[in-house]
Amino acid sequence: MAGQARGKVAVDVEECKGCGLCVESCPPKCLELAPELNVNGFHPARYTGHDCTGCGICFYCCPEPGAITVYRIKAKPKALASTSTSLQGGEHAAAL
Ligand code: SF4
Ligand code: SF4
Fold first, then answer.
1. What is the pLDDT at residue 70?
2. Which of 51, 63, 70, 72 could form a disulfide with 30 if both were Cys (CB 3.0 to 4.6 A apart)?
3. How high is the pLDDT of residue 77?
């Protein structure tokens, strides 16, 4: 599913046990298991680099504390022009 990324994830490769729960649970399917092995002989999860929504489902599914970290990207603030107009009161300001 394509969409604007609102988050990103980082996987601690050496903490990951390659169970794949995060891969299966990710709604936009933006995680995958890497073909290479970590030091423990597991295929670690990795972020494909796009479409993460920052929902955190992968974090809550992961049985390994610290293996996966979710970052949310802050939305850009709305245009100041319309905000300043409503704060200053204008023809559409509510009558108090
Ligand atoms: S935070 Fe949500 S969208 Fe992002 S990788 Fe995890 S499950 Fe997928
Ligand atoms: S759920 Fe956790 S341990 Fe399992 S593959 Fe994903 S990051 Fe690795």
1. 97
2. 51
3. 75
Q: Which ligand is nearest to the CA of 58?
A: 1
Mutate to test the pocket of ligand 2, among 9, 13, 14, 17 (most ligand atoms within 8 A of CB): 17
pTM strictly above 0.70: yes
Q: Which two tokens stand for residue 72?
A: 């949310």
Residues 55 and 25: their CA atoms lie apart, in Å, by 11
Nearest in space to 52 (alpha carbons), one of 12, 11, 8, 10: 8
CATH of 7-88, one of 3.90.1200.10, 3.40.50.150, 3.30.428.10, 3.30.70.3270: 3.30.70.3270
